[in-house]
């Protein structure tokens, strides 16, 4: 009889424990499917040419405004010199047209009929044409100055260089990304929760993040936002232009995973976030509701 009493007590304790854990999980959704994320800036040159100078190393930190690398500026310097020369020539032509127009106008003022109306119109048109040519030359000069400036590529923000494969002498092409820069000030945690766990979760709710790299240093965070949609897996077009439909059991309804974005409240100095690393996240719904 005593044995049955002990067994019953143990069963009750186990049931209470399971129910307590279930209630705790329901009130505080938890997932191991979390990752560290950050904005990655693709450093892209705006001009073409060989690389002549590299000031960065792989997996190094840079500060906004730091010179990352430089493209051979010689051709772009020549283009600028040529543009400046043409601008000076256009300025000289404008000065000549203005002088001739002023001379003809003065002569006509002194004695009417000295210069024909047609000639006066032609002199004025020559001035307008010269002004347009000068404006065009200035635009070409500005473009040449920009292209020369674009041969030096600077860091647009504080961050970390990673997976650097650039070498001096390499020929780079304009508008083709070369270097990945992780924005140091943009890190966040993204966790994927079952849709059934997100009822009552709101932006601003407290959360606890545990990084796999730092299992003994949980971080406090807050819910920043909850995703409004995910990609559809069934019905996408296959190779034969027919829809891809995954087989499933009619009596089983799998909960979809919704991305939730978390913002860390503070980060200890001894912890360095790294994009793509794993995190566990627990939302504390009871903290605010």
From TrEMBL:
Q: What PANTHER family would the database entry show?
A: MULTIDRUG RESISTANCE PROTEIN MDTN, P-HYDROXYBENZOIC ACID EFFLUX PUMP SUBUNIT AAEA-RELATED
UniProt family annotation? Belongs to the membrane fusion protein (MFP) (TC 8.A.1) family.
What span is annotated as the signal peptide, if there is one? none
Keywords from UniProt, A to Z, are: Coiled coil, Membrane, Transmembrane, Transmembrane helix
**Limits of the Multidrug resistance protein MdtA-like barrel-sandwich hybrid domain:** 40-181
One GO molecular function term? transmembrane transporter activity
Domain p-hydroxybenzoic acid efflux pump subunit AaeA-like beta-barrel as annotated: residue spans: 186-283
Q: What is this protein called?
A: HlyD family secretion protein
Q: Name one Pfam family in it.
A: BSH_RND
Ranges in a coiled coil: 80-110
User: Which GO cellular component terms are attached?
Assistant: membrane
């Amino acid at each position: 009889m005593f044995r049955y009493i002990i067994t019953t007590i143990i069963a009750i304790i186990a049931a209470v424990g399971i129910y307590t854990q279930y209630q705790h999980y329901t009130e505080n959704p938890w997932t191991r499917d979390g990752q560290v994320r950050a904005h990655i800036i693709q450093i892209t040159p705006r001009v073409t040419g060989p690389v002549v100078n590299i000031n960065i190393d792989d997996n190094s930190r840079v500060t906004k405004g730091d010179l990352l690398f430089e493209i051979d500026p010689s051709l772009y310097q020549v283009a600028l010199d040529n543009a400046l020369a043409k601008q000076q020539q256009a300025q000289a032509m404008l000065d000549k047209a203005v002088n001739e127009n002023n001379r003809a106008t003065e002569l006509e003022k002194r004695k009417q009929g000295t210069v024909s109306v047609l000639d006066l119109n032609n002199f004025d048109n020559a001035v307008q044409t010269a002004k347009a040519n000068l404006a065009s030359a200035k635009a070409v000069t500005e473009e040449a100055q920009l292209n020369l400036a674009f041969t030096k590529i600077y860091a647009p923000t504080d961050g970390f260089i990673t997976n650097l494969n650039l070498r001096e002498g390499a020929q780079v092409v304009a508008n083709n990304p070369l270097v990945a820069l992780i924005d140091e000030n943009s890190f966040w945690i993204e966790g994927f929760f079952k849709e059934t766990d997100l009822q009552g979760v709101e932006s601003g709710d407290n959360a606890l993040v545990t990084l796999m790299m730092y299992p003994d240093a949980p971080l406090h965070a807050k819910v920043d936002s909850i995703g409004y949609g995910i990609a559809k897996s069934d019905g996408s077009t296959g190779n034969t232009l027919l829809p891809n439909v995954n087989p499933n059991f009619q009596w089983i309804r799998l909960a979809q995973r919704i991305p939730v974005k978390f913002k860390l409240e503070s980060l200890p100095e001894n912890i360095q976030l790294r994009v793509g690393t794993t995190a566990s996240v627990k939302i504390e719904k009871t903290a605010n509701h």
